[in-house]
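HOLO CASE FILE
Compound: zinc ion
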Amino acid sequence: MRVLGIETSCDETAAAVVTRDEAGKPRILANTIASQFRLHAEFGGVVPELAARAHLTSLDRIIAAAMTEAELEWPQIDAVAVTAGPGLAGGLLVGLMTAKAIAASRDIPFLAINHLEGHALTARLTDGIDYPFLLLLVSGGHTQILTVRGLGRYERWATTIDDALGEAFDKTAKLLGLGHPGGAAVEHAAGSGDPVRFDLPRPLAGQATLNFSFSGLKTAARQLAHRLQPLREQDVADICAAFQACICDILADRCGRALERFSGEFTSGSPVLVVAGGVAANRAVRQVLQQLCDQSGARLVAPPLALCGDNAAMIAYAGLERLEAGFFDDLDVTARPRWPLDETAPAAIGSGKRGAKA
Ligand code: KG4
Ligand code: ZN
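Model generated. Tokens follow.
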């Protein structure tokens, strides 16, 4: 089975082809991506209308590039999988209409994929881990802890009650003049900063909840930056280092407690913690989670950096798993700008939205 994946939910236009080798191991045959990073940079965030137009302009070319990279002809593609949500409606529609056209004209199965499921299953694509596992999903629009019991079987244990973690990184970067998207820039600046010069708050610390809150932290960083005006390069680095250290403490605290609960509920074997989404590319975050897992006898699986951010290989792989499980979708599926992984969990501001980060 060779599945073509398409991703247009935010500001990356991406196409990929994924299959399994004879031993059953997933293989990425092509993974192409065109980032709209430059297009949105001057606006300090993703502009939905511009994003949709740019997807429309480049998607055909990106799909053709993926087919060339995979060295495949159309009759060799067995199914098409596309992100149907969550995300920006205009971009989702561009991907959906293109995928539907391919499925209809080739008469092959069509799969509407939840973008978050793509992130969630990346660790199965790269490391072949088994269900169940504990998932820390940290992206530009989401911050959640979920259990993944099987394909499509998600239980949300925690969510942010305000900003998503990637959003908090981006807003902090913006107020420090580091550009957008700013997560990687904050990480870079933090590298030459002193993490103990400033003490930033750890919202919800010491409370029973596993939930996250980042807006107070972001506000504290803003007030600190204001107080220090004019900011020197070292001040910026020190604020970034304090911010990142604070994030690491918060993640270690919540994931540590979630791992204890997970071990209690799933008794067989040592637990696996997967970190996924754009913020999973942060080395300090990976390091603190690795330490936590070493201490708690758990295994950390973090995707390679190139597969942490948005890509279509994860969408093609989720499509492959669904196809193998006998699922496919009708061509009347429409975009779902809000689409939580655990549909039974109560709605919370950070729990099912994505995009419109500007
Ligand atoms: O998963 P993703 O590519 O898109 C969404 O689904 O939202 O995540 C993008 C987010 C952005 O907020 C970006 O600033 C953040 O991931 N990010 C990082 C790093 N690289 C990307 N945050 C912290 N450190 C990084 N190295
Ligand atoms: Zn994403």
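CASE NOTES: The pocket of zinc ion (ligand 2) is lined by residues 115, 119, 139, 277-278, 310 (CB under 6 Å). The domain at 132-305 is CATH 3.30.420.40 (Nucleotidyltransferase; domain 5).
CLOSED: yes
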